[in-house]
Every structure is written in structure tokens, then in C-alpha cells.
Amino acid sequence: MVPAGHMTDPWLRVHRPRPDASRQLVCFPHAGGSAAVYRSWADELPPTIEMAVVQYPGRHDRYAEPLPTDLPALAADIVPAVLARAHRRTAFFGHSMGATVAFEVARRMTAVPDRLFVSARKAPSAAAGPVPPVSQRTTPDDDEQLRHELRRIGGASPAWLDDDELWALVLPVLRNDSRMSRAYHYRQGPPLTCPITAIVGDADQAVGPADAARWRMHTVGGFDLRVLPGDHFYYRHSLPPLIQLLSSWGSRASQPTGKVR
């Protein structure tokens, strides 16, 4: 089992503590994901950035806890843990479902993050498109259809998609997160004041650049759209440019231009 990382509280895992770092990056996993997904990223970030990853209930070291069923309520539960670490400049990164969780956390905070990175996810206010990501689809009655969808968007390793025993272990969390994501309804409110950078893979069959561009409506703090090589989980093949992007926030070169890059 991959170690969960240093536990700062029930909600956050710090895989590589950097108490002297001037900035921090808080990551929010995708549907079915856990804090372990980002373990290798901590070593790639510069020493000036400490990475903390949200550990949702019901997985890994929180396996015995009930799975969350309401996304806004989940976000509200995460807020105090993030605020307790708000003594440093902070950016959020959320992938797929995690982007929506990160957004809902940000809009509930008294001290908003310096930047919100939203990855492979349609804007909260966007209507469902013809090919929504698996975390937004109506959960199939046939679990084999869910397995098919994960294969289609590149959402899992064939090793456990093709292994019935491994699939049975991960299916309850995937099914739950899909239902929670599907039930989410955006409630209108003031836009964020921090910049938003939306990131999408150029071969993503679930979320395209036009979908990601609608995130600009959710901030008055500036917006950027970045397109990287890869599918819905583009970072498996494009981690170096993503790490460079996540490392540059706060610099003049990282200021939003409104252009697709």
C-alpha cells in the first residue's frame, strides 16, 4: 500500500513536509481518488512550495468512515482544515470532481486562495454536454458500463480494470463519488476574487477547451486556459509542464492573460 503521507489533521496529507516553504499547494483528488494519487508530485515541486492533499472520507487511512454523499457539505467540512493552514500564500488544484470541490471550498473561505487551478472539469454553471465526464454521468445500473467509461476516458490502469477482485474493491468509492457529483447543483453566488486557471488535455473526450473556458464566469480576478497533451488524465503524460505551471503561480509570468496557451 502507498503510504498516505504525514497527517496534519483528518483532512490533509503532506507527503513531503516543508515547514519553511513560503507557499503551499492544496490538491483535491478526482472521483474515486485519494491523497496517494499526488504522492510523487511533492518531490517535483520546488522547495518553496509545500503540497497538502485532501483525503476524502472512506478511502485509505479513512476507510472506516462513511463516504461523503453531498458535495457542498463535503466542501464545508474541508474549509476549517484549509483555513488552519492559511498563514502562507495558497493555491488550490482540483482535478475532475476535485475541481468542483476546490471551487466550493474557495467560495466558503474568509481568506480566498491566491489562485484556483481547475483541471479537466466543466464549469459549475455549465449545462451538461453530450459527452460529460464519468464523474458527472448518471451512474449506470450496469457497473460494467462504468468500467467501460473509465477505459474510454483513460481513467484507470488496465491492471485493475481487468481484474475483477481489484475492481470490486474500488467500485463502491467510484460509484459513490459519481452519484455525489451527479447530484451536485451549482447555487449562484458572488464570483471568486482570485484568478482561475483552467487546464484541459488536448485529447480529453469528456471536457474540451470550450467547456473549460466557461470557468471565466466564476471569477473577477482574471482567467487563463491552458491546453496540455493528453486525455482526461493528461498529467500522466504531461506532468513536467503541469508542475511548471503549478510552480509558477504568484510570479509576473503567471499572471492571467485571458488567452489559450
Q: What are the salient characteristics of this protein?
A:
alpha/beta; globular; Rossmann fold
CATH architecture designation: 3-Layer(aba) Sandwich
Main sheet record: 8 strands, mixed
CATH topology: Rossmann fold
Instruction: Give the end-to-end Cα distance, rounded to a whole number of Å.
Output: 37 Å
Describe what is shown at a glance:
The protein is α/β, with parallel strands linked by helices and 261 residues long. It has 8 helices and 8 strands; from the N terminus they run βββαβαβαβαααβαβα.
Explain what this protein looks like in three dimensions:
Residues 26-250 form the Thioesterase TesA-like domain. It comes from Actinoplanes auranticolor. Belongs to the thioesterase family. With 261 residues, the protein is α/β, with parallel strands linked by helices. The protein has one domain (6-133, 188-254): Alpha/Beta hydrolase fold, catalytic domain (Rossmann fold). It contains 8 helices and 8 strands, in the order βββαβαβαβαααβαβα. The chain has helices at 41-44, 71-83, 97-106, 143-153, 158-161, 164-183, 209-213, 239-247, and strands at 6-9, 12-14, 23-28, 49-54, 89-95, 115-119, 196-201, 223-228. Helix 3 links the parallel strand 5 and strand 6. The longest helix has 20 residues, at 164-183.
Question: How are the SSEs ordered, and which strands pair?
Answer:
Blueprint lengths: L5 E4 L2 E3 L8 E6 L12 H4 L4 E6 L16 H13 L5 E7 L1 H10 L8 E5 L23 H11 L4 H4 L2 H20 L12 E6 L7 H5 L9 E6 L10 H9 L14
Parallel strand pairs: 3-4, 3-5, 5-6, 6-7, 7-8
Antiparallel strand pairs: 1-2, 2-4
Helix pairs in contact: 2-3
